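Render PC-esterase domain-containing protein 1A-like in 3D.
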Amino acid sequence: MGPFIKQSQAWQLLFNKFVVVLGDSVQRSIYKDLVLLLQRDQYLTLPQLKSKGEFSFECDSLVEGGRLGPMTNGTEYREVRQYRSDHHLLRFYFLTQIYSPYMESILEDLSQGLKPDFIIISSCAWDITRYGRGSLELYKQNLHKFFGQIKTIVCHDCLILWNLTMPLGKKIKGGFLVPEVSHLRPTLCYDIIEANFYSSRLAEAYGLDVLDLHFHFRLRLLHRMPDDVHWDALAHRRISTLLLQHAAAAWGVDLLAPLLPSGQDGAVNIRPLLAPTQLANQPGRTAGHHYGGVDRPMRDPLQLPPFRQQSSAAGGGGPFYPQVPMQRYPPPPTGNLRFYRRYDDPFPLANPWLGPQVYHQFGGQSAAGGGFRFCPHFQAHDCYMRRRRRKSNIRTHPYLPQPPQGAPRYPAYGWW
């Protein structure tokens, strides 16, 4: 799954930020993983992933709906959650349709209340299955309405990220797919691809950012739950990493910047990204700089540093590069083509260790060896470094029909 984002990085990136998450049950799990990530480096448990509408989750609060109202799988289900700390604010709205009277009330709350800094939105599966035969066309019309409204109520510097729906299986169990629309089960995974394509192009046309989660997880179907809709804790931590990496790139923040030393001021350690040319031409920082490091200009690694050697005759000297004697091969024998490859270079070295040498000036002239250290160039034999490629037993189709036989599917949760 790759390296995951750490709690310290997420804590600093979302410092004094208001994050709003809107969507279905997958988006609710994204909200839960962000709440957990802001507090400690742990993963969601299986009961936490399955539960919905609870009164409290990791010190958050249920604002509306959930267990405060009827717990149903209908389109009228509501759930609003909020996590608040001294420096972070996260809010989640459960959606069953991308644009509806309920969405209009949410947009009104966002326009009159505190302005969000980061909005994460996704809505597709409910829209194209639970609203009649023309659900897909209605979904396209509602996308136009929502994208046009959301751009007018938020600040110009608010980051709006549209998440594409993740891959669905062909044997969906429960959830939004009630028995009345169970006939859509075999083709729903293909309808999602069409809806994702349309929504992504439309979001780009309205100036929104798009994160294609369908693309990122199309080859990671082993992390999908047995219901063919939801995903496990590792997948959600990967989603959180992708979301925060996208936000960091949009805000110009380096997530790999070191932490602030204790006793120094600064609410958040934000280091702007630098282009390679800017980093190469950047002057060295002082020792008191809060990053605590010195960025040296880039140079050619094969360039030999000059060494000044005092001459007794001239009383001084200029830059001196020590010379290494090179032995040459004798001329090739006449008519012998076996040595043709050997004499491609007009001046080949007799000793392969006398390739590009690297000299390091680690001391003054009083150091042993004139102040230089010789490191021979290492060149491994390709015949010993090659590895045999084996053909995979799994076909290369992007969507596996079923997990490989004999491999545990979810060892962390005891599922086989």
